[in-house]
Structure formats: structure tokens, C-alpha cells
User: Fold DUF4342 domain-containing protein from Clostridium fallax.
Amino acid sequence: MNEITLEKVEQIIERTGLSYAEAKEALEENNGDVLETLIYLEKKFEEEKKERFNFNLEEKYETIDEFKKWLSDIIKKGNISRIKIKKDEKVLVDVPVNAGIAAGVIAVILTPLLAVGVITAVATKITIEVTEEDGTVHVVNKIIKETANDVKEKTVGFAGTVKDKLNKIKNNSKVNENEDSKHAEDESVYSYTVNFDEIDKEEQK
Assistant:
């Protein structure tokens, strides 16, 4: 093993932000080699991030409820700045996230998908781009399927949730919706900016 010096430890700290103990331990696991330690830590951090946000690249069928929970979990866990949802390269939803999203407000994301008939009784593949505050973009493919009755019920439920939420906080939050229909009449791009802090306060009352 190469000698582990203070200089090496500080190099690791400077590049990774680890503590002295963590940097020393990482060097020990890589025989005191600074370059190998940095490569090791880079891979380790990436794996931890994938596990943390549950970015499973394997495509699988999910219900609307499962998709809703996945969205809620990744937003609550990390520093997410934007969520974009596409189907066949067409942007359907583009949502800047400026705070934690309450469960009810997830409907703001899902309602446009249901409104344009993306989620139907037939399995539909969509692509989600999740952007973190540091600019890192994660691309995840999801295949969503519900029965026709479930879709109808959930469309009504989500629309009602959004309407109720926005009516309650209309004097305290701003919601901007922009619709782009340049490709076709039934293809829309929805863009929202929501003051989620105010929504959470309303929920706690």
C-alpha cells in the first residue's frame, strides 16, 4: 500500500467534500492511490444517488397510483428542480419544482396526462426527465396502464383535487399555466409554477 499522507487526504476532501475520516478510509480501500480513490468514490456516489432516488432503468408496468407514489418519493427525497414528461419525443408536462410537493398537488402533474389521453387502458410508455438542482438530468422510462374505468375515475378525482387546491390558495399562491398546441390540436404542453410552500401550509390547517 502506498503511504497515506495528509496531502492525499486533503486532495480527496477538496474534490469530494468528505470528512478527514471518510477520505482516509477511502484511500485505505484503494491502497493509498488518489486517482483510484476518486474513481471509486465517483462510482460509489452515483450508485448511492440511483438508490436514493430509485431511478430504476428497467422498464416495467405500473399503475397510476404507483407512478404517483414514485413521483412523490423522488421529489421529497432530493433537490429536484424540474420534472419533464414526454411521449414519443413530445413534451406533455414541464414542471419547475421550487419546493416539496404535497401528495394532492401531484395531480397538477398527472391531470394533463389524463386529459390528453396518455394513460389509457392500453399500456403507454412515457419518458420522465428529472433534473436536480446541480443540473444533473436523470432519464427514466415508465410504462403506465390502467383499466378504462380506473382512468375515468382518476381523471375526475385528480381534476377535482386540483380545482379545490387552487381555489383554496388562489390569494396566496400563483399558478401559471401555458399551453402550446403548435403540433396538433390534441397535443398540449403544460407548464406550471406552483408555490408549494403555501400549499403545504394550507394542508396543515
In short: The chain is about 45% helix and 20% strand. The first strand starts at residue 61 and ends at 62.
